[in-house]
Amino acid sequence: MSCTVTIKTAQGEIAVRAEKGSKLLPLLIQQGIYADAPCGGNGTCGRCLVRVSGEVSPMTERERHLLGSREGRLACICEAMGDCTVEVDPKAEKMAVQVDSYTCKEFELTPRKGVGAAIDIGTTTVAVYIYDLSSGELTDVFSEVNRQRIFGADVVSRIEYSVKNGHTALSNTVISQINSMLGGRRPDRVTVAGNTVMEHLLAGLDPSGMARVPFTTRSLFGGSFTPSEGLLEAGEVYLLPAVSAFVGGDMTGAVVAAGLDEDGPARMLIDIGTNGEIALRSEGRLLCCATAAGPAFEGCGISCGMGGLPGAVRSIRLGKNGLELSVIGNTRPVGICGSGLIDALAVMLELGAMDETGRLDEDCEGVFEENGELCFRISEDITLTQGDIRAVQTAKAAICGGMLTLIKRAGLEPCDISTLYIAGGFGSGIDPENAGKIGLYPSELSKKTVVLGNAAGRGAAAALLNDGARERCEAVAATAEYIELSSDPDFGDYFIDAMLF
Ligand code: FES
After folding, report:
1. Is the CB of 35 under 6 A from ligand 1?
2. Which of 63, 101, 177, 348 has the most CB atoms around it within 10 Å of its CB?
3. What's the rounded Cα separation, in Å, for the pair 389 and 225?
4. Model's pTM, two decimal places?
5. What is the pLDDT of residues 134-160, one digit of tens each?
6. Which of 24, 39, 49 has most ligand 1 atoms within 8 Å of CB, for mutation?
7. Is 48 close to ligand 1, i.e. is its CB under 6 Å away?
8. Where does 104-246 sit in CATH, by number?
9. Which of 492, 379, 501 is nearest to 435 (CA)?
10. Which sequence spans correspond to the domains of the chain?
């Protein structure tokens, strides 16, 4: 038995026929409508909020729990039981994400004719920078949430999706997203920085080999890779070379953008995303590793978590009258993003609401019990649960443990590092002191941090505008020493030590 589901979007209405009992999320995906779905439709994140009317399935207990006080339904749980109407939040459909911009002043220009595009495909965000190749002028910047989020928030869930269902839907999603962001332009030259999985999917290659050991790749891209004709609506396409399955072209670009491929005192670079990538330059060597930080710092898997979007608490200070929140867009707080989480944990330590093991103290002001779990109140609507704290604790221990492992492999101590570059969208907003306090990195480095912003995008722009930068990316990929943390004898101990606050 079928029914009609009318989908309302900012562009108008679409009526689709569906079997009764069909879940709403797959119907939206089939129509190319992108609800926020970081858990990949597994009914665990509570983010695929839609408004519905008409004949739909009754609300389940689990859905009620995930919705909390919000009105609406969850598209991955709610089913069409007859004719009904579904409305997606237009902001979720096409969320613009703030990204940094780079001008040619940062790079010596190798002038050419035409238009170029430097593209950064992050697991969470896609950014497209359009340049005039003759002057190096940045003429446009576009950024959106990566539409592959409907297949899961992190790289691992997207590889798993490919293993189970093939990679075609993922590849088509990213290719059509970039073509739509190019908006009919046909750039003469394109450079792309992405992690190895994202570059596989853009190139139409199956990333399933990266699902388990020995983590095989179809290509490490760079100059030796010739993308198939028609990959993008563009002329020449260059994918920045990767070092390994988990240290991708995004890191190669970031290393070049930070100048870590050049000699000098010992320096480190961390790019904190769902996969934390770390590089260390010392005495002519470039060591790197990747650590499964998980998506906590991107707000996923955190009960009140969200990305760095309007309404997100981005910083918290302890004022005379309690917690002082700064909210993106100066609106009412609706969630908390990665930089806010770091501040929240630092403040909880300072207040004594949480001990060094991460356990909440029920006797401390602001701590209360809900559904059998201790929580800490940030604002009227935003709380952090004990489970949220554990998720952040694991993420920060993975990053700090990876850093300490690289430092040891280079024969150094944390105090020998002269500069710590922090890359990634989330890195732009963090308070370096608080990040050191909670142990995101060794505390000796708190006063040595330099925030780079979107360094992968900057690397892609460098490779677009300057031929020497492209050669540098190739050299980085060819000479970097990759350290596999899962088989490293020290990583486990460092990770456990770094679990403490
Ligand atoms: S709960 Fe529906 S996508 Fe996560």
Report:
1. no
2. 348
3. 43
4. 0.80
5. 998 889 988 887 888 778 777 888 898
6. 39
7. yes
8. 3.30.420.480
9. 501
10. 2-93, 104-246
